[in-house]
Amino acid sequence: MRIVLVGPPGAGKGTQATRLAEKLRIPHISTGDLFRANISRQTELGKLAKSYMDAGNLVPDEVTIAMAKDRMEQPDAEGGFLLDGFPRNVSQAQALDELLETEGIELDAVLDLEAPEDEVVKRIAGRRICRKDSSHVFHLTYSPPAKEGVCDVCGGELYQRDDDSEETVRKRLEVYHTQTEPIIDYYKAQGLVVTITATGRVEEVTGRALEALKRDK
Ligand code: AP5
Ligand code: ZN
Q: Which reaction does it catalyse (predicted)?
């Protein structure tokens, strides 16, 4: 399957993508994780991306699209993929459509995770991620690690993302409403959008997502 995951910051895209990718046996491609990996390796792309991310803005389309395209062309993505955080505006969605058309493939669904703003703010405030692998995600209240400050999966150090400060989160939410939400209408016009409620326990949301994706087929 080829799926795009969309939803506000803190809706649980990363959390659900990890679980869905495993169940559906497709790679989880997160542009946020790819940028963070570049930041920790201190690449030129990482340095550029960090300046935008820390301000809560989108990284310029040109570099983002090139990075996403490169990742989608890796052999493990041939049979399908789950895109998390890409596309994030209408021009990225158009670029993705062009890329898919060139390859002669199509998206199966755009899964839209809906969560109220006060909930996503709480989720982001308590989020801690692993320095070794940013797909290892915890929450101080909702899914605390067994040992404070230490990743249960790999023993890495847990930290709070630089862009998770209250001020930057407000900016990211504004960017989501103005730039990312319009892609939902863009994909509705293609009949691809399935919307689910992203509140409740993590497993419940995964169950809802799998049901919705099945129903859609
Ligand atoms: P990105 O990394 O994509 O961040 P985001 O979209 O803001 O989303 P988050 O990672 O904050 O939240 P999430 O929905 O994944 O939630 P999570 O599962 O962690 O992007 C970061 C930045 O990179 C952007 O601002 C931009 O600068 C740049 N960027 C990325 N892609 C780009 C693109 N295409 N174009 C341009 N720029 C781009 O969950 C949050 C917390 O809640 C966790 O602690 C988790 O444990 C907890 N939680 C999850 N589900 C539940 C639940 N059901 N119940 C209780 N707690 C839960
Ligand atoms: Zn870890």
A: AMP + ATP = 2 ADP
